[in-house]
Amino acid sequence: MPSMKVEGDSDGDGDMSGGDTERSAGSSRGPDRDSSAEEADEPDSDDSSEMDESECERRRNECLDNLANLERQFTILREQLYNERMKHVKYQLSEVQGGRSQEYLGPLRRLQENMKVRIEVAGILKQMRIENIRHKYEAEEQAAHQNFKVSNS
């Protein structure tokens, strides 16, 4: 049966887990500092509100400066991205115009093969139609000769 570890038991090398001692030490210090800081701010009623407003205004201005800086950086990066894309598109266009682009040449080859097949099929269809028209003409001509012979006899 596997041994179960109970809180407070040793890890095997005789030490308690460090997380428990740090957590308990940190939790006892944290609230004391906060409450003492709040108590120090409360006695100055008029001055603290002035400081709070000035502190808020300072932080607000700092945040606005950060925001403006981020917007400038974003604009610069957006322009860089646009320029890079335009450069890439111009390069691709020059490749296509020069007949070197594989993205262009592959589909172009397939289109040319389809065009050859269609031209060949159209040529055969044209020959068949011409032959059909010739047969109809010959049949009409033969029918006319037979009608002429029958009507003259």
Automatic annotation (TrEMBL):
Keywords: Nucleus, Repressor, Transcription, Transcription regulation. It is found in: Nucleus. Pfam families: Sds3 (PF08598). GO terms for cellular component: nucleoplasm. One of its GO terms (biological process) is regulation of gene expression. It comes from the Eukaryota. Residues 37-55 have a biased composition (Acidic residues). InterPro entries: Sds3. Residues 1-59 are annotated as: Disordered. The keyword Transcription regulation applies. Belongs to the BRMS1 family. PANTHER family: BREAST CANCER METASTASIS-SUPPRESSOR 1 (PTHR21964). This is Breast cancer metastasis-suppressor 1-like protein. It comes from Euphydryas editha.
